[in-house]
Model the fold of this input.
Amino acid sequence: MIRTDISTVEQVLLQKKRVAENRKRGSKKVKLPKTPRILEPKGIERAYQRELRKLVNRTIELVKANVLSQVPSLVSLNDLLLPKTDSIKLDATPEELLQDLIRATEINLSRQLTDAEVQAIAREYAVQVDLHNRGQLSKVFRNVLGVDLVADNPAIDKAITAHIIENTELIKNVSSEFLRETQRIINDGFRRGLRAEEISKQILGKTDLAGKATPSKKAINRANLIARDQINKLNGQINKVRQQSLGINKFTWITAGDERVRDTHRIDGSIFTWDSPVSTNSNKVKPGFNLNPGEDINCRCYAEPIFEEEFLN
Done:
């Protein structure tokens, strides 16, 4: 029977060894069960993507109402200035009026989409990642060791706080970039003499005149990438904290096992230590370079804990 006052993997393994040594018959060696697969937080990732897309769509709708609705008037005003003539005197050029609209929209957006709201959303899903990771590691320990050692850890709270700060900045930057791109495309439309409908299509459609993604499409794609990357990154960080706090020093690199795994991450089954630099370019350690499962952009790999066998033999 495993005692309930032990708190590290090493203590559990040593106790198992002592139990084996006290047996009158049979082998003194302890054979641990196979480690069950740790599942990715896919459901959390998809839910977070939906929330971030909602935030981006709010920015898009605000730009449509405050800026794009004024583009026909600005285009008409711009047409009066083509060709350039000194006979028409304006208090402000179309470019200057557009700049005022962009600034007003930025102020409006900061009031409607506050840091507090974005932080609350980021925190909600960060907590879900923590619970997911806790459940997955608890499953591993119960199956392999026969006891659940997973407990709260202050370092996890720090990781979640850093995650919230970073996510808030990333999400706000998506909105800022969308506004900058909108302004650039409208000004370019002025110079090229484009119609208002053509300008709006280059901002809100799927592709622009060059066949590239429009600002609205790029903003949505960016939101999806942030959610996917940040959820897996946080899961990897929490996994590392929990394993190290329980005395687990080594892990096996496990990939998602599908065609989306990048070539540099196809090191499935390679063994590393948490305190040693890891390179996804090869199985070799590179001094000064630290990259663990989940830390690279859009990485879905994870670290499967290794239970030290020297304690058992």
Remarks:
- Helices lie at 9-21, 42-66, 71-80, 94-112, 115-144, 154-192, 196-204, 215-245.
